[in-house]
Each structure stands twice: as structure tokens, then as C-alpha cells.
Amino acid sequence: MLEVKDLHTAYGQSEALHGISFDGMANETIAIMGRNGMGKTTLFKSLMGVLPIKSGSIQVAGQDVSHDESFRRVAKGIAYVPQGRMIFPTLTVEENIQTGLENAKSRHIPEEIYALFPVLFDMKRRKGGNLSGGQQQQLAIARALVTNPKVLLLDEPTEGIQPSIIKDIAKALNEIRKLRGITIVVSEQVLSFAMDVADRLFVIEGGRLVHETARDKTDVNHIKAYLSV
Ligand SMILES: Nc1ncnc2c1ncn2[C@@H]1O[C@H](COP(=O)(O)OP(=O)(O)OP(=O)(O)O)[C@@H](O)[C@H]1O
Fold first, then answer.
1. How far apart are CA 15 and CA 4, in angstroms?
2. How far is CA 81 from the centre of its chain?
3. In which element (H, E) is residue 141 found?
4. From the CA of 43, how far away is ligand 1's center (Å)?
5. CB 3.0 to 4.6 Å from 203: which of 56, 102, 152, 211, for a disulfide?
6. How far is the CA of 51 from the centre of ligand 1 (A)?
7. How do residues 77-88 score in pLDDT, each as one tens digit?
8. How many domains does the chain have?
């Protein structure tokens, strides 16, 4: 579903990604683990077309998107939940979700979205800015989902969120994968969350993927060593 080959991305003269390659299958969740500054956000922005890539390729369901603008990538099936969620604070919950429906035939929010996130139904007339961090994260996921992605990218979805809500988000992601059979890619520093959602885990260090493991074969202490400073 997602094929990333030898991706290089630079900020000016300074290269931040040095040849990232991985595949994500349908009905699979992948976690990209790494400390701050290791390149997670740069990778996601490169996949989404927020940053141009220097070389390499990105395919979504067999279609090349490597040099497409972001909105074309969305049309071809990638959706992105950015770090810090980036919801619109002055729009209501309902209006925030509808921004994901701008190119859809109908502005109607599918029932399935509220079934996944009942709290958003209860709060649909509230302003996005008045929601808690965890509720905003659920809102950002809902907004991404209404574009019907084949590949859903989430950049550090647990950042700044309390543990009980982290569990809810893990549950929702597992439900989404089951319902839709899509590829989900999350970047994370919280190993317990990654172990709850991911089928495969990668470690990114200095702009390179340096370790890959299937969940059931994961040596937790080995990954922890990468994540500790
Ligand atoms: N706008 C920028 N200009 C120049 N260098 C940048 C810029 N943004 C990030 N970098 C550099 O790219 C590298 C990767 O940063 P990136 O933000 O992708 O890391 P990250 O793993 O997502 O960390 P975090 O969890 O803090 O977001 C770092 O060395 C960082 O200094």
C-alpha cells in the first residue's frame, strides 16, 4: 500500500534523511520510533509533500506521489495527522472535521467517525480550541479519516496526552485498521503505545532506519536503549 524507496530529504545544504526505505502493507500498522531530532517529522513531511524530497520515491497503492503537491497526495490516498495536531481552534468540532471533506461530494460526516470517537459527537458544537489535548488528537484523526485514506500517517499522536487517553487512541487506531484495512504509520517515543498498535517497529536514528522488528519478536530493552538519551 505504501512503498518508500531510498528517500533523501535536505534542509538547504544539510541532509536530514539519508536513504529511508520501507513498505507498509494493507491492514498493517508500522511504528517509527526515535528520539527528538532523529528525523521522524522530516520523514512524515516528506511523505506528505510538505517538504520536497531530494531523491527517492514514494508510492501509494501503486501510484507514484513522489513529486505531487500535498492535496494531490490526499486525493491519491495519504492522510496526515501532524505533530501538535494543528486543529482549527476557532472552528467547531463539526467544522473541523468538515475541512477534511472539502473535496468530497457531501459535507455529511459519516456515522462511523462518531462511532469511533463518541466524545466528538457529544462535543460537535464546541470550539476545537476548548477541547483537551486527547480530544483534539481524536479530532485530528477524524479529520484525516474522512478523506478515506489508504495510508494514514500520525506524527507522535501520544505527545502531551494523558495515559488513559493514550489507551483510547490505541484502541481507535486498532479499530480503524480492522474496519478499513488500511496502512497506518505512527511515529512514536512511547514504546508501550507502539507495542499496542504496531505489527512492525522501526527505529530511526540520525535520518536512517537502523533497526526493524516484528512486534512478537521485539526485544523491548533493545528498543528502549535506542530511545534513551
Ligand atoms: N526547518 C529546519 N531547518 C533545518 N534543519 C531542520 C529543520 N527541521 C528539522 N531540522 C533538522 O532535521 C533533523 C531531524 O529533525 P525532525 O524534526 O525530523 O526530528 P524528529 O525526530 O521529528 O524530532 P521531534 O520529535 O523533535 O519532532 C534534526 O537534525 C533537525 O535539527
1. 17
2. 5
3. helix 133-145
4. 9
5. 211
6. 12
7. 999 999 888 899
8. 1
CATH of the domain at 73: 3.40.50.300
Q: Please tell me if the CB atom of residue 45 comes closer than 6 angstroms to any atom of ligand 1.
A: no
pLDDT of 165 reads 87
Q: Measure 88 CA to ligand 1 centroid, in angstroms.
A: 24
H/E run at residue 79: strand 78-81
Question: Are the C-beta atoms of 2 and 77 separated by less than 8 Å?
Answer: no
* Ligand 1 proximity of 9 Cβ (cutoff 6 Å): no
Mean pLDDT of 211-217: 94
pLDDT digits (tens, 9 = 90+) for 117-132: 999 999 999 999 999 9
Q: Give the tens place of pLDDT for each residue, 108-117.
A: 888 999 999 9
Give the domain extent around 148: 2-227
Q: Is the minimum distance from the CB of 32 to ligand 1 under 6 angstroms?
A: no
Q: Is the CB of 82 under 6 A from ligand 1?
A: no
